[in-house]
Every structure is written in structure tokens, then in C-alpha cells.
Write a structure and sequence with these properties.
heterodimer; A: about 270 residues; MetI-like fold; globular; B: mainly alpha; 13 helices; about 70% helix; about 0% strand; transport (chain A); cell membrane (chain A); transmembrane helix (chain A); membrane (chain A); transmembrane (chain A)
Chain lengths: ~270, ~290
């Protein structure tokens, strides 16, 4: 079995090197793209790039915008997505089949097709440009998370629910006290899955926000890259500093919780 | 069987969301594409006459739009086979009991969880004219450099997206590999099959449903391409050689104020995705 470690190591180098280089490049006082520059040199280290990007895009404010945008989506998904997932898995009512079919169909509609009509509706129709609500609305409930919730609720034994109902518990109470505590890993997985969507999303918040003060990190950094960067002393350094700042929260969350983001959880989606 | 009408209440918010954010805009996109449509301030109503296929003929005779569809074709020809081959290879390697499994798995999905905008920054630095990649390649480096070279811009984006998304597809294949019965490998070994033969005869057919899913998702990702041509090749450059249909939807629809034309590009794009996905399904069924 010699080829496996070779393939995996080669893969890991190709996957990790750009991240390593991102950090090294963000700390260089002068850009050094020679092969030797891939190793940090004590004489060429500085935090100046971070100061430069902060002065240009106001990292604190952009971070707050990213947090509100992402937080709104995660909250919407956890509240309404869990309710829908539970209903789809455990309750019998008219319209359930239709909703489930619609949910599956959604997965194959490219979001970008909807961009123009959503822009017409949300920005031009409701006047929600430069608002958090306008940013959140199209992502408010993550359908993949609803699907994950449904799969997890389906896996619980049916007798559990029957017993609770016979004891006179209402459905909300069954969901809250019986089902939810048993699917905690699913909640974490779905939260992580949901988190990366809005945190990394570029196109939609880019269309909705024109004021710099409302832009999430990804949009602020992208604007800096496409317009302002050339004016900085070390534009690549400043871009990479911003990139580290943007990538770090998602990367760290996934490293800490990596065991909750494994194939078996996602697999429930594949095996369907 | 007892019915629980309260389920309607539980799923009502999600049903409203699906209707308002997916179903209605989907219909609106098609409607806009058949009308002359301009942006107005909220509450202002202007005539929006039916114009038949005018928007579509405007789109189809626009060389920039046609180029963008060719570009996506180039993208898919590189990205889809590479994604399927590499993610299956790495998933197979990960599936055995190797040391450092967690480390490898985590490092493979880091590009997937990191924001496109952030990793585009590093690629700009790595693949720029005087970047590390060209310094290492020396005289073998393309001139002009990757992202500003007419022939390399689109393949560079295809490679970037393959790298970025691979971790997700590896996870899908890992899940699928758990479903391939171990006995099949054992009987293949008894029949004297070497590792490559048992991979061909057992693994590949065993994960075929996952391959269908991976191919479909890779095609959809490719059709949705926007951030990379916008940032990595500076707005679809050089001279439109890396422009994607979605980038043109943005430029025509929102920058230049022609949402009707942009909607027509969107409808054509989805029709294209459905045709490509359908053709792929047919091809696969015939192979079986």
C-alpha cells in the first residue's frame, strides 16, 4: 500500500501550502515572491499589512457586518429549519410531500439564475439595499440544513415519539424535550454547514451593499482588491492580511469541530 | 394513521421562504426575459411591454455572451473530469487505515471552507507575473502570465475551482465508499485481481451514484462561476477570455441596467445546465 501515503502527502502539500503562504505573505514588510521568500525571514517581518488593510476597509465594522449577516442566517436556519425538518420527518399533514419535493428541486436551481429577480424584488421592490434584512432574506433558511435535520429526526426510533405523545406532550414539547437533545450532533453539523455559506458569500451581499459601512468582510476585501490595492505600499501584503482575517474564523471553527464534519453526517444526504 | 395538522404550522415559515425566495423569483426571471424591463424606484410603475424573443436574440447575437458560454464549456471539460478523478483517488487513499487520517481529511477540506475571496488573494500572489509559481518555473512559465494569458486564464480558473471544491467531493466519495461491500474486494482478490483491477471492477461501479451526484454538482458549480472571473482575472479578462455567463449577467443586468437581457442569459444558462446534465445521465446509462 505504498501509493496511498504518497498521494495523501502530495495532496496535503498542495492543499495546505497556499494557506501557509497566505500567512507568510501577510507578514512580509516587502513582498518577496522568490522561492526563498516562502520561508519567513526575521528581517522582513512586520504587522504593517494588517494596519494597512484595517485603515483601508475598517476591519472591525466589516467583521460586525459579517457576524450579523451570518448570525441571522444561522438563527433563521436553526429555528425555522429545525421546525420544518421535524415536521417533514415526523408529522403527517397535507402538503408534506409537495414541500419535500420542492426542497429537493431547490438543490439543482443555480442561485445565480435567481440573482436578477431577487435583486429586482429585494433591492428595487422592497427598497432593502444596504440593510441586513436585504442581505439575509435569500439565505434565511438553509435547505441543506433542513435536509440534514430531517434525516436525523428520521433515524430516531418511532416508539420514542409515540410514548411522549401518549404521555400527553404537545408536538412542540416532543420536539424540544425529546427529539432535540438526541440530535445535538446534527445541530452542530448543520450550524457549521450553514455558517460557511453567508460567511464566504460574495455575489449577493456585493449586489445589496453599496455603502462601505454595511459591507461584510468578503465584499469589503474584494472591493479593496479590485480598486484600492494599487495605492498601498505592499498591496499583496495588505490583501493577504485581509485574506487571513477573512479565512481564519471559518478555518479555525472547522479545525476545532472537524470530527462533526465527517462523511457519515454528510453521507445521510447522499444516501437519502 | 393519525394526522398532525400542526405540521403545517411547523413547516409554514420554510414553505413561505421556498415560495418567496425560489418559486416566485424563478417565475419572475422567465417573465422578465420575455419583456422589456428597466429598473425603477420602489412604487413607480412603468410600461413593460411583451417583446417575445427579442432579449434572447440580443443575447445570442452578442459575441461577449457567446464567448462566455464557450468559456464555461472549456471550464467544464477541465474541471469535471479532474474533480471526479482526483476526489475519488484521494477518497480511496483516505478510506484505508492510514496514519494521520484526521490531519489529511482536515487539510483537504480547508480550501472548501475558506472564503473564495480570501484564497483568490493568495492565488493572485502565487500566479502573478513575478509570483512564486513563475519564479520556480523560470523560462517554462507562460508569457504573459497565467491569469492575463488568453489561453491560460480559463484553465487557471478551472484549476483553482477544482482545488477549492475538491474537499467537499472527497467527503461525498468517502461516504459512498462506506457502502461498497467489503466481500466484493475479497472475492476480487480471490480471483487474482490486482489493486488497479479491483479498483476498476469494484470501487468505480460501487460509487457510481456518488459519481453522478459529484458530476451534477460540479456542473452546477461551474455554471454559477462569478467570484473567480470577477477577482482572479480582473473581470473576465483578458479580452473576455475568462468571462462567465453570470459575470455577464452582472455586467449587462446591474452595471448597465438591462435586467431583461440578464434574465435571458440566466434562463439560457439553466437550460444549458439541464441539457448537459441530461446528456451526462444518458451517456452514463448507456455505459451501464
Amino acid at each position: 500500500m505504498r501509493w496511498r501515503p504518497v498521494a495523501l502527502t502530495l495532496g496535503a502539500i498542495i492543499f495546505l501550502f497556499p494557506f501557509y503562504y497566505m500567512v507568510v505573505g501577510s507578514l512580509q514588510a516587502r513582498p518577496d515572491s522568490s522561492p526563498a521568500g516562502a520561508l519567513p525571514r526575521p528581517g522582513n517581518l512586520s504587522l504593517n499589512n494588517y494596519r494597512e488593510i484595517d485603515a483601508a476597509v475598517n476591519l472591525g465594522r466589516s467583521l460586525l457586518n459579517s457576524i450579523v449577516f451570518t448570525g441571522g442566517v444561522v438563527l433563521g436556519t436553526l429555528v425555522f429549519g429545525v421546525l420544518a425538518g421535524y415536521a417533514l420527518a415526523r408529522l403527517r399533514y397535507p402538503g408534506r410531500g409537495t414541500l419535500f419535493a420542492a426542497m429537493l428541486l431547490l438543490q439543482v436551481i443555480p442561485f445565480q439564475l435567481l440573482v436578477i429577480p431577487l435583486y429586482v424584488q429585494i433591492v428595487r421592490g422592497y427598497g432593502l439595499a444596504d440593510t441586513y434584512l436585504g442581505m439575509i432574506l435569500p439565505f434565511a433558511i438553509n435547505s441543506v440544513a433542513v435536509f440534514v435535520f430531517r434525516q436525523f429526526f428520521l433515524q430516531l426510533p418511532g416508539e420514542l415519539f409515540e410514548a411522549a405523545r401518549i404521555d400527553g406532550a404537545g408536538e412542540l414539547r416532543v420536539l424540544w424535550s425529546v427529539a432535540l437533545p438526541l440530535v445535538r450532533p446534527a445541530l452542530l453539523t448543520a450550524t457549521l454547514l450553514t455558517f460557511i455559506g453567508p460567511w464566504n458569500e460574495f455575489l449577493w451581499p456585493f449586489l445589496v451593499t453599496k455603502q462601505a459601512g454595511m459591507q461584510p468582510l468578503a465584499v469589503a476585501l474584494a472591493n479593496y482588491m479590485s480598486t484600492v490595492a494599487s495605492a498601498a505600499t505592499n498591496p499583496y501584503g495588505a490583501i493577504l492580511a485581509g485574506a487571513c482575517f477573512l479565512a481564519a474564523p471559518a478555518v479555525l471553527l472547522f479545525i476545532v469541530f472537524q470530527r462533526h464534519f465527517v462523511s457519515s453526517d454528510l453521507g445521510s444526504g447522499v444516501k437519502g | 394513521m393519525r394526522r398532525q395538522p400542526i405540521g403545517m404550522l411547523f413547516s409554514a415559515p420554510y414553505a413561505v421562504f421556498v415560495a418567496a425566495v425560489f418559486a416566485y423569483p424563478l417565475g419572475l426571471a422567465v417573465w422578465i426575459s420575455f419583456h422589456e424591463y428597466i429598473f425603477t424606484a420602489p412604487g413607480v410603475s412603468v410600461p413593460r411591454p411583451f417583446v417575445g424573443l427579442d432579449n434572447y436574440s440580443a443575447v445570442l447575437t452578442d459575441p461577449a455572451v457567446r464567448r462566455s458560454f464557450v468559456n464555461i464549456g472549456i471550464f467544464l471539460i477541465i474541471n469535471v473530469p479532474l474533480t471526479v478523478a482526483l476526489s475519488l483517488l484521494l477518497a480511496t487513499a483516505l478510506n484505508s487505515a492510514v496514519r494521520g487520517r484526521t490531519f489529511f481529511r482536515t487539510s483537504f477540506y480547508l480550501p472548501y471552507v475558506a472564503a473564495s475571496v480570501a484564497v483568490v488573494g493568495v492565488w493572485l500572489f502565487l500566479f502573478g507575473s513575478g509570483g512564486l509559481v513563475n519564479q520556480v518555473l523560470g523560462s517554462a512559465a507562460p508569457d504573459p502570465s497565467w491569469l492575463i494569458n488568453e489561453n491560460w486564464a480559463m484553465p487557471s480558473i478551472a484549476l483553482f475551482v477544482t482545488w477549492k471544491q475538491l474537499g467537499f467531493f472527497i467527503l461525498l466519495y468517502l461516504a459512498a465508499l462506506q457502502n461498497v461491500p467489503k466481500e466484493l474486494y475479497e472475492s476480487a482478490a480471490v480471483d487474482g485481481a490486482n489493486r488497479w483491477r479491483s479498483f476498476r471492477a469494484v470501487t468505480v461501479p460501487g460509487v457510481r451514484p456518488a459519481t453522478t451526484l459529484v458530476t451534477l454538482l460540479a456542473i452546477i458549480t461551474g455554471a454559477n462561476l462569478f467570484t473567480e472571473p470577477y477577482l482572479l482575472t480582473n473581470g473576465g479578462g483578458p479580452s473576455g477570455r475568462s468571462a462567465s455567463p453570470v459575470l455577464l449577467m452582472y455586467q449587462r443586468g446591474i452595471e448597465q441596467g438591462h435586467p431583461d437581457v440578464a434574465a435571458a442569459i440566466g434562463v439560457l444558462l439553466v437550460a444549458g445546465v439541464l441539457i448537459v446534465a441530461g446528456a451526462q445521465q444518458l451517456l452514463e446509462r448507456r455505459q451501464r
